Amino acid sequence: MSTMQPNPNRRRFSTWLALCAGGALPLAASAAAPFPEKGRTIRIVLGLAAGGASDAQARFVANKLAEVLQTPVIVENRPGASFILATEEVIRSAPDGYTFMYAPSSVVAQNPQTLAQVRYDPFKDLTPISLGARGPLVLTVHASVPAKTVQELIAYVKANPGKMSYASFGTGTSSHIYGEAFARQAGLDVVHVPYKGGSDAAKDFLAGRVQYYFDAAPNAIQNTATGKVRMLAVAAPKRSPMLPDVPTMAEQGVKGVDMASWLGFYGPPRMPEAVVARLNAALAEVLAMPATRDFFRQGAYEAESSSPQALAALTRSTYDEWGDIIRKLGLARQAQ
């Protein structure tokens, strides 16, 4: 019986393969560029027109984030369709961390349940990065309306059935649902006028073309300073520390219009964990800065970060809570 002799060429080839395989790991590691690449621009997409409270917050954060990450960070406004255009753009973006969005809770908790145009799944198509801020909506009324309390507003609207109107950020947004919940609770015959964001709604509201408006607190404060509108109530479970003299809706006899709103940062699906972690840490640093907290508090918002997991849990719980309200109001999958 013959015995097969070892092939020295095969042994040398195996040794060469082993050396190559051993060297492949450092080569692969060096091929993955660190995030972010210095000088490469990061985009924060916002589904609202420039000039509103969320836009101001996003731009403030972008400037500070650029300092922390040592790379340019810009805000790109993509208004329209109740944040759908902006959300779809982010979902289509490369999951490399250079594009993410700053979005109100309505984008993930309300729009998917009220708007027929929404095709995204907030739990599968978006990557939670960090919470950004919490703050209430405020019921504001135009100065031409003779009402200084919620009950006076109710009486005035009832005395003018079908003639009064309220503004919202857009169909299916929190300001719309709050407005509808208020109308149902108080038995009001009133017209809903949706806009493409807070800045567009503010123009008609300040001009008196619509009579009242559940507005974001920073906008409400700014508009009240003009003398053309009044703040009647905070739509939150308790009074805002920044607006201590403004009572809640419940204090004035209207319950069920009291869910505090929030905003968060979301990226495209399938973002690498390391990239999410880097952005999360950078945002946590920015949102904890005294300058950031002071800026947000000027608009009655609290800057607040979170882990990605905590934002995911908040998204789910807010979605479920709003789902109950939306079904009770008959607003499920309502088209614009």
Structure, described:
The protein is of the alpha/beta class and 336 residues long. The chain has 2 domains: 42-135 and 261-329, Bordetella uptake gene, domain 1 (D-Maltodextrin-Binding Protein, domain 2, 3-Layer(aba) Sandwich), CATH 3.40.190; 137-252, D-Maltodextrin-Binding Protein, domain 2, CATH 3.40.190.10. It is 43% helix and 18% strand. The chain has 12 helices and 11 strands. It has helices spanning 8-31, 53-69, 84-92, 105-109, 111-114, 150-159, 174-186, 198-206, 217-224, 273-287, 290-297, 308-329; strands spanning 42-46, 73-77, 99-104, 127-135, 137-142, 165-168, 191-194, 212-216, 229-235, 261-267, 302-303. A 6-stranded mixed β-sheet has the order 2-1-3-10-4-11, with helices on both faces. A 5-stranded mixed β-sheet has the order 7-6-8-5-9. Strand 1 (42-46), helix 2 (53-69) and strand 2 (73-77) form a beta-alpha-beta unit. Helix 2 crosses helix 10. The longest helix is centred in the first third of the chain and has 24 residues, at 8-31. The N and C termini lie far apart (86 Å). Residues 1-6 and 8-31 have low confidence and may be disordered.
Labels describing this entry:
336 residues, alpha/beta, D-Maltodextrin-Binding Protein, domain 2, 2 domains, six-stranded mixed beta sheet, five-stranded mixed beta sheet, 43% helix, globular, disordered N terminus
List the SSEs and their pairings:
Layout: H1 8-31, E1 42-46, H2 53-69, E2 73-77, H3 84-92, E3 99-104, H4 105-109, H5 111-114, E4 127-135, E5 137-142, H6 150-159, E6 165-168, H7 174-186, E7 191-194, H8 198-206, E8 212-216, H9 217-224, E9 229-235, E10 261-267, H10 273-287, H11 290-297, E11 302-303, H12 308-329
Parallel strand pairs: 1-2, 1-3, 6-7, 6-8
Antiparallel strand pairs: 3-10, 4-10, 4-11, 5-8, 5-9
Helix pairs in contact: 2-10
